Task: inverse folding
């Protein structure tokens, strides 16, 4: 049970990265999962081949992911969303093909094993809480508002002086870094990675989680990401049918509640305050 | 020479996929991943049809394409109809089509397992020699049938009333509704036609390779071809598909299939960098 929760939380990094990209700028990335594999592989290789300590190999993984995000972001983010989606798809398959091809470095289809185990439950929980906090602040910051503006209308937001290209690039690199952080944690938790684990379907699943939760709600993404990650494990008894059931569930949500489960609802501290105030005023009124 | 022949027959299949893809793109402006799902389900359908009833190539082809068309219409009704009436953002269509493909892949894996099936052989002699190149009957037939289908489609779009309605809707959905075009009907017919193409291409892919659940992912090749050709342009998609087919055969024979995906990715990236408007040359921007 413990490891199920850790896996769900590690996947949550991917969901958060996707949330940042898809919910804020409206771009779809089908190669998001390969940032996770880049993080896991680079940090694992640094630790294995050169024996670097965990913080440095972690940094290496993050930098590698940020660099590759820059490489695909630079030419494609100037263009329409569909080109971006296509290129990220190609990027995902290309990363998997490269990992499979260079057997002497990455271990090929056999995967990379014996990565030093440096992650525990506590580290994952603390990092996910910090990441959620950071993303919440990002959404409320100047950049977050710029992103929401450009998601709704790129031309109009350019007209009011937002540098659309630069903002999109920033968000994409940021989402890659968050996802690859999850990858680094994954690699050092399981001590084993293989190329097939982070394919196209994984990235698609993350996009779906974000949409189920509601694109306008971070709370929605977090809750839906967590529940839908746990759900397949709980549905083991219908093992074959679980992906089917869950796609059906998603189609129903899309058809009948297109704004997602949570809509624009967010859990926040001020909410509790309001509840308290309301109660109080009602009591006063009665008196 | 051998590569050129193989490349053309692969390109013809890609052209079928790409045109089916571009058709939907034209009217609803989204990349229809569910095309892959329809493709794979009709590939399976064709396989079991020819396996169990020993139908000839042409009967199988006709029934399979009709089946594909039917599937595409069902997909439209399940996945896109409501979204269209809600006026949801385009990204919803995209995600919905992805979900449909995942669902079909999964259903097939449940009922038929993840194993691959090979189509029965339709001809006694598989190939003939032309000079020094080996040309297989099936590949020639695939090339001819695909070309015929594409030519008929071009005629349909260019000269019939339906084609004019289609182009009007592709230009502006709202205004064409105001002009009295039955948009729902045209959209459903377009889905049917794209399903026909998906059925044919699924069966051809099944004949050229084998039938397995992940066949749906070849739809990405159709997508790349439409991007190379210029989004939404149908003749551009055909040219892009042939270029891609030739190129892929060339790459596989020279550097092996494992690295060819990497090269295709790099070349698509470079192409977008240098000429984002595609071969057809229409600059693609979002309308405000």
Result:
């Amino acid at each position: 049970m413990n490891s199920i929760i850790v896996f769900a939380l590690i996947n949550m990094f991917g969901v958060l990265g996707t949330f940042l990209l898809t919910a804020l700028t409206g771009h779809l990335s089908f190669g998001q999962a390969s940032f996770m594999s880049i993080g896991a592989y680079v940090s694992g290789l640094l630790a294995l081949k050169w024996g670097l300590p965990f913080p440095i190999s972690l940094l290496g993984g993050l930098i590698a992911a940020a660099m590759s995000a820059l490489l695909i972001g630079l030419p494609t983010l100037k263009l329409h969303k569909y080109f971006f989606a296509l290129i990220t798809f190609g990027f995902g398959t290309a990363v998997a093909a490269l990992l499979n091809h260079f057997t002497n470095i990455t271990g090929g289809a056999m995967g990379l094993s014996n990565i030093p185990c440096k992650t525990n439950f506590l580290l994952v929980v603390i990092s996910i809480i910090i990441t959620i906090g950071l993303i919440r602040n990002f959404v409320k910051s100047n950049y977050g508002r710029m992103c929401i503006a450009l998601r709704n209308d790129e031309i109009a937001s350019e007209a009011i002086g937002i540098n659309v290209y630069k903002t999109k690039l920033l968000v994409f690199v940021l989402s890659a870094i968050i996802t690859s952080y999850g990858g680094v944690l994954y690699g050092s938790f399981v001590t084993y990675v293989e190329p097939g684990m982070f394919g196209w379907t994984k990235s698609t699943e993350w996009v779906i989680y974000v949409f189920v939760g509601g694109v306008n709600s971070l709370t929605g993404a977090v809750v839906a990401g967590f529940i839908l990650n746990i759900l397949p494990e709980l549905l083991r008894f219908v093992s074959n049918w679980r992906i089917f059931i869950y796609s059906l569930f998603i189609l129903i949500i899309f058809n009948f509640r297109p704004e997602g489960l949570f809509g624009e609802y967010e859990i926040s501290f001020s909410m509790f305050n309001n509840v308290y105030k309301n109660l109080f005023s009602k009591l006063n009124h009665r008196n | 020479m051998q590569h050129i022949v193989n490349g053309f027959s692969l390109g013809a299949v890609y052209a079928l996929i790409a045109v089916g893809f571009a058709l939907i793109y034209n009217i609803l402006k989204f990349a229809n991943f569910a095309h892959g799902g329809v493709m794979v389900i009709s590939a399976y359908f064709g396989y079991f049809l020819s396996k169990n009833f020993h139908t000839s190539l042409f009967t199988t082809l006709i029934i399979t394409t009709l089946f594909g068309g039917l599937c595409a219409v069902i997909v439209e009704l399940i996945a896109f109809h409501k979204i269209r009436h809600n006026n949801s953002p385009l990204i919803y269509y995209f995600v919905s089509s992805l979900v449909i493909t995942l669902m079909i892949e999964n259903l097939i894996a449940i009922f038929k397992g993840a194993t691959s099936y090979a189509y029965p052989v339709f001809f006694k002699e598989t190939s003939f020699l032309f000079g020094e190149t080996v040309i297989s009957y099936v590949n020639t037939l695939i090339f001819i049938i695909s070309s015929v289908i594409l030519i008929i489609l071009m005629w349909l779009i260019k000269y019939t009333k339906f084609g004019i309605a289609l182009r009007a809707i592709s230009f502006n959905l709202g205004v064409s509704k105001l002009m009295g075009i039955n948009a729902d009907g045209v959209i459903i017919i377009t889905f049917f036609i794209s399903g026909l193409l998906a059925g044919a291409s699924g069966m051809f892919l099944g004949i050229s390779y084998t039938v397995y659940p992940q066949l749906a992912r070849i739809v990405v090749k159709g997508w790349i071809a439409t991007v190379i050709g210029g989004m939404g342009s149908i003749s551009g998609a055909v040219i892009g598909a042939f270029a891609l087919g030739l190129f892929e055969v060339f790459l596989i024979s020279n550097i092996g299939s494992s690295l060819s995906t990497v090269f295709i990715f790099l070349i698509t990236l470079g192409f977008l960098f240098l000429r984002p408007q595609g071969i057809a040359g229409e600059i693609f921007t979002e309308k405000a």
Notes: Strands of chain A lie at 112-113, 192-193. Chain A touches chain B through 46 residues (CB under 8 Å).
